[in-house]
Write a structure and sequence with these properties.
- The structure is a homotetramer.
- The first copy, chain A, is an alpha+beta fold.
- Chain A has nine helices and 13 strands.
- In chain A, helix 4 packs parallel to helix 6 and helix 6 packs across helix 7.
- Chains B and D meet through loops of B and loops of D.
Chain lengths: 276, 276, 276, 276
C-alpha cells in the first residue's frame, strides 16, 4: 500500500513534512502501521508549485529514506502547495514513470489503492483514453490510467464530476469482466490552487484519508507550539495516514466523500460514481 | 542509435564479446563510429540461454561501460546463444522495461532503429496487439510494440512471415497518418535455437547489419588465432556494426533481407513487407 | 540491522534460498522480525563460487525484493557455495561499494553488526591496514574495514586467529577512545571451500546466528520433504535469523563462538579476542 | 576527462547553462570535443547557493543527459552562484559519493584532472588529512582527497595559499614515490561569495580553463542578444571548455594561474606550489 500527503497553505520547506523525524512521511515509509504492506520502499515522488511556475516533479525508484537528493531538495525548496507519495508496488515495475505524483500540464495526481485485476481490464480502460492524451501516458500503472481517464472525462473543467465518471467507468468495465469490487482508492489531485481529495472503494470499505483541522483551531489547542505559529489559518494537510501524535489534529474523511481544500471555505461532499 | 550483437555457436563466456577491450560491444558503446548518435549510454541488456532453461535477461539503465555487475555476470556466464544490446534512446524513458532484449515466453527480441512519429501512431499500433498478449507489454517503446505485433501475427510459428506482416502493418498505419517512411530497423529474434536477423527500412536505406564469416573460413584465414580455434565451424555472430579490425570477418547483409542462423546451412532471403 | 545467509553443500539454484516465498532471505527483507531495524531496504549483495572460478559478486543498492535482475540471476545460477546479504545501513552511504559481501582475491566477507562510534575510530583502524591492501578498499563501511584488518592480520593463512586479532585490535582501539562496547558482529567468511561463521560482541550480547542441522538428521525428521532429498548430508546453511518454520532445523551458535563448515566434521570452537 | 562550469552573478535558472541545447554542459557531455575521453557519462553533480542558505547539492550516477530529475531541478531553481560537473571516471567507482561538487560546511569543490598513480599515493595523502576532517570524507576519489588536503592546509582562511600547499604536498609525495608528474588539475572552489579557479599541472601542460569576458564588454559586442541584457556586468562563467559559439566570449586562463571572481575587480594571479 502506498502513502501520500498533500499540503496547501503558507509556504514551508518540504522537509518539514517529508523528512523530519517522528512525524514525517519518510519516517512512515520505514515504519508503516496502518498500511496493508509493511514497507514502502518501491520509490517515491514529490511534486510542488512555486509562484508563477508549472509544477516540478522529483521522482526516484530508491527508498525515500535513503535518498540523499530528496533531503537536499526538501531542505532547499519552499512551496505553498506540494504533493508527496511513497510507493509499495502492487505488481507493476519499479521505475520513475510508474511513480506518483503523475503530471499533465498544470495538474498533479496521486493515488493509494488499486484497480483489481488491472491486467485483464487494462486494454479496455486505456482504449477509452482520449486520442490527444494517449501519447502522454508514460508508465504502466493503474493509477496513471485513472488519471488519464479523469482527464478524458473533463478533469480540467469539472474535477469532481470527471472523477465520478472515471470511477463509474472503471466499475462498469470491471463488472463486465466479472470483477466484484473493481476499485479501491484515495486520490488527490490539484492544478496548483485547490486540492481535491477522494475516498472511495467499490466495496464501501476504503483506505483511510485524513484532513488536518483548521490551523486556528490547532493554534487554540496548542498555543505553545512554535511550528504552528507561522502558518496561515487556511493551511491544510491531507494524508493517507495521520502524521505524528498530536491529538485533535486529524479528521477522517468519511467513506465515499470528496474533500476540497480551496480559498474560502473548504468543502466536504458525498462522492457518487456516475455512468458516462 | 542503438547497437546490438547476437551470438550462436560454441558456448563462450559473454565477456569475450561484451567486455574485452578493442573489439567488444561495450567498447563500442563508448566510442561509437558508425552510429547516428555519438554515445550509447542509455542502458543495456543481455539475454542468454543455457541448456534446458528459459532465457535469462539482465537489463540496466546505467551505461554498460560502468556497470560492475555486468562485468561479473559476463565473466561468470557461458552460453551457446546470447543477445546483447546497448541503447541510445530516441526519446522514450530510460528504464529497464524499455531496455532490450525484450522477452516473451522463450523468445527474445532486439531492435536498432525507430518507428517514425511513434507517438502519433502508437495507439493504433498497440490496439492491434492480441488481447492475450496485451498485458505482457511492460514498457513504452516502439521496439517492444514491434515485438508484440510480430507475436500477434504469428512469430512463434512463422518468424519471417510474421515480421513481414508486422512491417507491412506499421507501414500502412504510418502512411495513413502521413508518415512518409514509417520504419527503420535491424531486428534480431530467437527462441533459443535459430536466430533471425532482419535488415529493412521504408526508405530502402537501412542501418547496417553484418554476419560473421563461417568459422572454418576464418580459421583458414587466421590459423594462428587461438581464440578461434575452439569455436565450432557453425559459430556465428550477427552485429549492427563490425567488432574489431580483422579483415574478412564480416559480411554485410543486403538491404531488405533476412538472415537465418540455424543448424545446417544458414539462409539469406529477400524480405518483403506483407499486408495482413 | 543486516541479515545474511551462507550456503555450502550440494549445488542448488540461488533462488531456492533467496527468492522463494515464505522462507527466503528476500521475504525476510520485507518482513523482518528479529532485526533491530524493521526493514532491510538499503541494498543487497550475492557472492558465489562455481567450479574452478574465482568468486563472482552481484551487488545492488535497490531493495532486494524489487530487483528483477537478482531474480534472473538467482534463477540462472547454481552454486555449491554462496553468500547473500541484505543491508540496513547504520549510517554510511548506500552505494555498491558499501554492499556486502566484500571480496578480496578468492575470499568473501559479510557482516551484521557495527563498530560503535566508527567515525571516531575509523582513521586509526584504517591506518593499521597493510600498505599492500590499502588500495583495494573501495567503500567506507566499518564492515569492510574489519575485513581488511583481518586480511592484514593473516586471514588467508589463519582465519580464526586473524579474526581474533582483528577483534582484539578494534576493542583496544575503541577502549582507548572511551567506547565501552566497541564491536557487535556476526561475520561469515570463505575462500570457496570452508565457511567460518563468527558470533561475538564486546558486551557479550551478540546478534543471533544459526547453523542448519545436518541434512541426514533433517531427512530422518522430514522423510517426505522432496526439497531435502537431493541435498548431500554435508550441506549446511548458516543464517543470521532462521528461515522458514520447520522445527528442528536450526541450532543457535553460542555466544563468543566460531563455527566452521568444512569437508569432514564441522567444528564449533570458543572465540577469544587476542592482542596483536 | 571531466567537465565543469561555475557561474557567479545575476540569479538565473540553472537550466540556462546546464540543459538548453547547443551551448550547455549537458550537451557537451554527449558530444565532447576537447576532452581526453569521448563521453562524460559517469554521473554528474550540481551545487548551488540561495540567499542565506547553505549550499545544496544534487548528485547522480546516471548520465546527465538522461536524468529527468536534473531537468526538473534546473528548471525550478534559480541561483546567483552554482557549480556543475559531469564526470568521466578515471577508475574509481561510479557512486554519488565520488561525484563532484564535494561539499564541506559552506564550501564546494570540483576538479578536472587526476593524481597520477593515486592508488599508490592514496594512503600517504589521506593520512595527512586533519583528524577532525577525516570522518567527513565520504568517497574514494583523488579529487575529494585534494579538497580535504586543501581544507587541512587552511582553505577556509587562505584559499590560494592552501591550494598551493596542497599541490606542493601532492607533488612531493608523488615524487618520493617516483611519479614524474603527479598532478593534473583545473579546480574550482567557493564558499558562496567569491569563486577561485585554478589551472595547474606538474608537467606544465594543463587542461583548459576559460573565463567569460565581462558582461559589459559582451553586451557592447552583442547588443541584440536578449539573454545577456538582464545579466549584471559582474556576471561571470568559468568553464573547463567553452560553451557555445559566440566569438569573443571566452578568455583562456594562462598556465599555472588562479582566477578569482569576486565583488569588485576580479583577479588573475600566478599559481606556485609551496612546501608545507
Amino acid at each position: 500500500m502506498c502513502r501520500w500527503l498533500a499540503y496547501s497553505g503558507s509556504p514551508i520547506k518540504l522537509e518539514e513534512l517529508l523528512v523530519k523525524r517522528d512525524r514525517s512521511l519518510i519516517d512512515q515509509s520505514l515504519h508503516a502501521r496502518q498500511g496493508a504492506t509493511t514497507t514502502n520502499g518501491d520509490g517515491f515522488g514529490v511534486g510542488w508549485y512555486e509562484e508563477g511556475e508549472p509544477p516540478r516533479v522529483y521522482r526516484s525508484t530508491h527508498p525515500a529514506w535513503n535518498d540523499r537528493n530528496l533531503r537536499e531538495l526538501a531542505a532547499g525548496v519552499s512551496s505553498p502547495l506540494f504533493f508527496a507519495h511513497i510507493r509499495a508496488s502492487t505488481g507493476t515495475a519499479i521505475q520513475e514513470t510508474n511513480t506518483h505524483p503523475f503530471r499533465y500540464a498544470n495538474w498533479l495526481w496521486m493515488h493509494n489503492g488499486l484497480i483489481r485485476e488491472f491486467s485483464r481490464l487494462k486494454r479496455e480502460l486505456v482504449l477509452a483514453v482520449d486520442d490527444s492524451l494517449y501519447a502522454s501516458i508514460e508508465g504502466t500503472t493503474d493509477s496513471e490510467t485513472m488519471f488519464f481517464l479523469a482527464l478524458t472525462f473533463g478533469l480540467e473543467s469539472d474535477p469532481v464530476g470527471s472523477v465520478e465518471r472515471m470511477v463509474g467507468f472503471i466499475e462498469e468495465t470491471g463488472r463486465m469482466h466479472g470483477v466484484e469490487h473493481p476499485l479501491q482508492m484515495t486520490v488527490a489531485t490539484t492544478r496548483g490552487d485547490a486540492v481535491w481529495a477522494f475516498r472511495y472503494s467499490s466495496e464501501g470499505d476504503s483506505r483511510s484519508l485524513y484532513f488536518s483541522t483548521r490551523m486556528d483551531t490547532l493554534k487554540a489547542l496548542y498555543p505553545e507550539t512554535d511550528e504552528l505559529a507561522g502558518l496561515s489559518d487556511e493551511t491544510r494537510v491531507v494524508v493517507s495516514e495521520p502524521l505524528g501524535d498530536l491529538p485533535g489534529v486529524w479528521n477522517e474523511v468519511p467513506e465515499s466523500h470528496v474533500g476540497i481544500v480551496q480559498a474560502g471555505a473548504d468543502e466536504l461532499r458525498p462522492f457518487t460514481p456516475r455512468s458516462l
